[in-house]
């Protein structure tokens, strides 16, 4: 993340970095520090594309800016390669929380796929325990530096493998001991949530909260599957829900908007959209509307009353932070502090915390924005 002074509100207002934030969609294997990849890679004899941290960071950003989710996901082969030992997982998780705290995050849900981290002999449970150890160390580090942060794990199953029920049971075993919910990730098109119906049945029967990647690399049918097969309480990205919204210009001053049944359902039930502006540009998720941030349907969804949230998705691949994403949106759509506060309150309300703790989180956000 660049210097704090680069992220003032338009017109030289409040410092966005210091505002309290909630991060709901942030991948552990997409948020490594380049130097950590270099260090851990050297320990296991892994060739990396660059041995200078700055150069490696640029390599990730360049390779990720492909316009294709499939190509974007290939960069994770390198990050997951250095996350196959207890030490590697613990270090990455600890630094992840440190970086969230530096970004002003007060609550974060960190998603990752344990099944991708067993190549060097760890069991699934051992990977979860190693990550939890790192997360707790990172929270302690933040507290020592005067920053209060809470975090939870979102255990992801890869949608193109056949381990959904196994991973669902893993999430349930660790629920309340670091894990706060479940997700499915990986290639979206061709791998619908219905393929993991047994996992979602199990999760529903055992009251495990669920968010599902949908509406990023596939369209409305994927979102339907997330809601009705996956019983998703949130949509991971969900940006292509805008395909179910029709805008018709009657004249130079009036535009009429009609919501399709799926969009109306999502809006009426306040199902949160985990939007990730920079990532959505990189993966081509908004190509139907354009190639610039101004083309992103974020503002349309916000103005229509959807529960929009702002996320980084993968901070390494997008060379970004939550502060930067908010700053970009404020610059592009002329948002003020009250808008940014709404995005954080939306995220707090959609988090997988118990009700009373969600309310306390909202109070923290309001107090922080009032002081800005």
Outline the structure in words:
By secondary structure, the protein is of the alpha/beta class. It has a single domain (14-371), classed as TIM Barrel (Alpha-Beta Barrel), CATH 3.20.20.140. The protein has 15 helices and 10 strands. The chain has helices at 34-44, 53-64, 69-73, 76-81, 86-102, 124-144, 164-173, 197-205, 220-228, 261-268, 277-282, 298-303, 322-333, 337-350, 355-371, and strands at 21-27, 105-112, 150-158, 179-185, 211-214, 234-237, 245-249, 255-259, 272-275, 308-310. Mean pLDDT is 95; it is low at 1-5.
Number of strands: 10
> Into how many domains do the coordinates divide?
1
* End-to-end gap: 21 Å
Which class best fits the helix and strand makeup?
A: alpha/beta
Count up the helices. 15
**Looking across the biggest beta sheet, what order are the strands in?**
1-2-3-4
User: Can you name the CATH architecture?
Assistant: Alpha-Beta Barrel
Percent of residues in helices: 40-55%
User: CATH homologous superfamily?
Assistant: Metal-dependent hydrolases
What best-fitting shape do the alpha-carbon axes yield?
globular
Radius of gyration: 20 Å
Under the CATH scheme, which class? Alpha Beta
Low-pLDDT runs of 5+ residues are: 1-5
Question: Could you state the order of secondary-structure elements as H and E?
Answer: EHHHHHEHEHEHEHEEEHEHHEHHH
* Strand percent estimate: 15-25%
* CATH topology-level name: TIM Barrel
Q: Residue-averaged pLDDT, rounded?
A: 95
InterPro entries: A_deaminase_dom, Ado/ade_deaminase, Metal_Hydrolase
Organism: Antiquaquibacter oligotrophicus
EC number: 3.5.4.4
Pfam family, one: A_deaminase
């Amino acid at each position: 993340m660049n210097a704090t002074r680069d992220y003032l509100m338009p017109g030289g207002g409040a410092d966005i970095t210091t505002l309290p934030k909630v991060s709901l969609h942030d991948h552990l294997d997409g948020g490594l520090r380049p130097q950590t990849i270099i260090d851990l890679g050297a320990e296991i004899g892994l060739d990396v594309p660059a041995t200078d941290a700055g150069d490696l960071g640029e390599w990730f950003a360049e390779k990720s800016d492909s316009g294709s989710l499939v190509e974007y996901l290939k960069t994770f082969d390198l990050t997951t390669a250095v996350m196959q030992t207890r030490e590697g997982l613990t270090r990455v998780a600890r630094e992840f929380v440190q970086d969230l705290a530096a970004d002003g995050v007060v609550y974060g849900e960190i998603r990752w796929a344990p099944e991708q981290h067993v190549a060097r002999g760890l069991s699934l449970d051992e990977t979860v325990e190693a990550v939890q150890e790192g997360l707790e160390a990172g929270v302690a580090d933040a507290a020592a530096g005067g920053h209060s942060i809470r975090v939870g794990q979102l255990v992801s199953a890869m949608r193109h493998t056949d381990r959904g029920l196994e991973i669902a049971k893993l999430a349930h075993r660790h629920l309340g001991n670091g894990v706060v919910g479940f997700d499915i990730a990986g290639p979206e098109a061709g791998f619908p949530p219905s393929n993991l119906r047994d996992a979602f049945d199990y999760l529903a029967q055992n009251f495990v909260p669920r968010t599902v990647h949908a509406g990023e690399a596939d369209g409305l049918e994927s979102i339907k599957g997330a809601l009705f097969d996956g019983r998703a309480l949130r949509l991971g990205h969900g940006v292509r829900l805008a395909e179910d919204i029709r805008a018709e210009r009657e004249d130079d001053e009036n535009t009429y908007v009609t919501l399709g049944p799926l969009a109306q359902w999502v809006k009426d039930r306040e199902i949160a959209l985990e939007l990730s502006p920079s990532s959505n540009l990189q993966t081509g998720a908004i190509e139907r509307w354009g190639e610039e941030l101004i083309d992103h349907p974020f503002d349309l969804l916000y103005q229509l009353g959807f529960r929009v949230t702002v996320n980084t998705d993968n901070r390494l691949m997008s060379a970004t932070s939550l502060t930067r994403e908010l700053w970009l949106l404020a610059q592009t759509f002329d948002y003020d502090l009250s808008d940014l506060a709404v995005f954080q309150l939306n995220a707090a309300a959609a988090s997988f915390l118990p009700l009373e703790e969600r309310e306390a989180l909202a109070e923290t956000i309001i107090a922080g924005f009032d002081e800005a």
